[in-house]
Amino acid sequence: MGAFVISKRFNDEYKFVFTSRKGKVIFTSLSYELKFECEEEIEKFKGGIESAKFLKFKSSGGKYFFKLVFNDNHFATSRKYTTELLLQKGIKEIVTYGSRSEILDFSVDDFVFED
């Protein structure tokens, strides 16, 4: 089963990624100022995943990707895929496992560093 992984960006904002069962990133969210905003957005998404829309694109370099639209807002952008079939598999992973995936928090706030 996949997982939502929360982490901190270099600019101190938060983001989350959805990873596949094999640990590969499928999509990356937009930035959020506070960690609880990530948690809330993930829970909303998990509860309403059937209303998500996947807009498919092909980059100028020939790679495939999608933008995830949820509640009429741009929610996340996928990684680049070499084929349209792999892109479709990434979408299927989200639809199949997204609503029951766990949330992992790897933001720096939770780690204690000792000298």
TrEMBL record:
InterPro entries given in the database record: YegP-like_sf
Gene3D superfamilies cross-referenced by the UniProt entry: 2.30.29.80
Protein's name in the database: DUF1508 domain-containing protein
Lineage of the species this protein comes from: Bacteria, Pseudomonadati, Bacteroidota, Flavobacteriia, Flavobacteriales
